[in-house]
Specification:
Elements lengths: L2 E5 L6 H12 L3 E3 L3 H8 L10 H20 L5 E4 L2 H9 L1 H4 L7 H10 L1 H25 L2 E4 L16 H18 L4 E2 L4 H12 L7 H15 L8
Parallel strand pairs: 1-3, 1-4, 2-3, 4-5
Helix pairs in contact: 1-9, 1-10, 2-3, 3-4, 3-7, 4-7, 4-8
């Protein structure tokens, strides 16, 4: 069990737990580039809200590529912050919720009719992307820890996500695990309780109190990930 996934949708504490588990186990962690980091590289001057269907799927594929590259550098094992399925689900959930939080069903229908060809091509690209991420997920991980949506959703003013999007994404992620025959271990409760349970399952006795790792991981997350510049 040396290739570990910390799974979950948005605002579930994946990054904090990943860093804490890395510090408590000495297993290196990998963090794929976020959308906000990829966006200015591929589409300078654009906000996610301005991206069309093709550009959204391209962002997901670029993130998947970065994840593969990062994990390949760690042949002896790693803890992955997130799961490749989430790159695909980011796009596929849009087919259900719309591209933006304020896109209601009637608005989605008008958009599909007005941009029929691009919407059709987007669905085809998603199908191919789905096959890639599922094949990779099946063969490249040993253990899946899943974090349920127990913490409040926090809009960051950047990603076009909402509580509805998070809920739908969570439902679809768990359904995909079931379909693939993957049984993730659900870590619920506070971040301290989640870390304690993960260490128990891994049969690792930490050298410091649980609070020590949580404090350090929270500080590191704020410094490394929460300070990423938002596009204007």
């Amino acid at each position: 069990m040396n290739r570990i996934v910390i799974s979950g949708t948005y605002c579930t504490g994946k990054t904090t737990l990943t860093i804490a588990l890395e510090k408590a186990t000495d297993i290196p962690a990998t963090h794929a580039l976020t959308m906000r980091e990829i966006l200015p590289m591929l589409y300078p001057g654009k906000a996610l809200r301005q991206c069309n269907y093709a550009e959204l799927i391209t962002l997901g594929m670029r993130r998947f590529e970065d994840r593969i590259h990062s994990e390949a550098q760690l042949p002896n094992g790693f803890i992955s912050d997130g799961c490749p399925l989430q790159e695909w689900l980011y796009g596929s959930t849009r087919l259900v919720t719309g591209a933006y939080p304020d896109e209601y069903p009637w608005k989605m229908m008008l958009k599909k009719l007005g941009y029929y060809r691009s919407y059709r091509d987007f669905k085809k690209l998603l199908q191919g992307f789905e096959g890639m991420v599922k094949a990779y997920t099946r063969s490249h991980y040993d253990l899946f820890f899943h974090l349920p949506t127990e913490f409040p959703f926090v809009a960051d003013g950047h990603r076009p996500t909402s509580e509805r999007f998070r809920t739908e994404s969570e439902k679809r992620l768990l359904a995909t695990y079931m379909e693939m025959g993957i049984q993730p271990i659900v870590l619920s409760g506070s971040i301290e309780e989640r870390l304690s349970k993960a260490l128990q399952i891994l049969d690792i006795t930490p050298q410091h109190p649980i609070a020590y790792y949580i404090d350090h991981s929270t500080q590191e997350r704020r410094e490394r990930f929460d300070q990423v510049h938002l596009e204007t």
